[in-house]
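Table S2 (continued). Query chain:
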Amino acid sequence: MDAKITKKRLNILLSYDWIKIILTAVAVILVWSLLFTMTATRVTQAQAFTIFNYTGTSASSRFSAYADLAGNGKVFSYDILEVTPTDITISSEYSETLLQTRISTGEGDALFAANVNEGVETEYSRPDGTTFHPTYLEQFLYGYFSAAEDLGNGDGTGGYFEDMAEYLNVYYRGDYAAGVADEEKIEADFLDRIDRLNDKRFKTSAEKRAGFEQEKERLEGQRQALISFLDYLDKGYVELQQTTLYLQDASGNAVERTGYFSINLCPNEDTMGNLKNDVYYTRTVTNEETGTETRVSTAEDVCLVLLNLAEDRYKYARFEGLRFVNYLIETYCTELQEA
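Corresponding output:
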């Protein structure tokens, strides 16, 4: 049998079978793509940390650089695989739609919003009939109150901080401040979690042992974060921002809610004013001698709202946000830099 490949035979093959060849190639590509998708490690809600910049503040290039904080081991734990800074003000026409979409799908961990109302045209009403212009922070909270963490009593007790202390006490023998880790409990819960969540990063015994060491570091990082933040709060570097909201219950009755739902990162410009290198707004300053008005950039009263949007199975990562807060304080606090 003459099986020699000739130009003529090759032309005949391509003329009649080219469709089969293309379909076969496409099928191979699809199979490989599907195989890669099924076996790849997907980033979960717990492993992604999303930071929003809200209306009223502008974001600098350093805000965009938050993406580089993932995996550096200095800010977040090993479990944060992706940090996504999102400036919703880039597209003012669709900013609220963008934010609503993200939050409705459970995406979001922290949000910058200024507690100032300069330039706000929206007008809200109080139960007594008087009206007011909300701050940008209040404007966000009116729309997404249920998404914001309750920060307790204003002094680092109650709410989020109490929950964090209770979470840590489970792994530090009832006293996270003492710092004596219960390694058996840490390992048992770690192995149970990676099994429940089918975490493909930890399959072999060696990978699980390495993961256990990382898990101890994650918990120790959160323990240190809580201790450090409470110290910074006590020293006045930052404050918990009190906000009063006029809401409605299910029957439409007016309900006044006063609480602490954000952290004021810059209550004092002398201490935290350089936060404006990341996020800022502009305000008018009048020279008392000349009466000249100028616009200046400032971060005074820029607050950070910690969001609680993750599904219950991913709540173990709820307290990564405090590590981000401490990063901002430790980066910009003048008293810490001088120490």
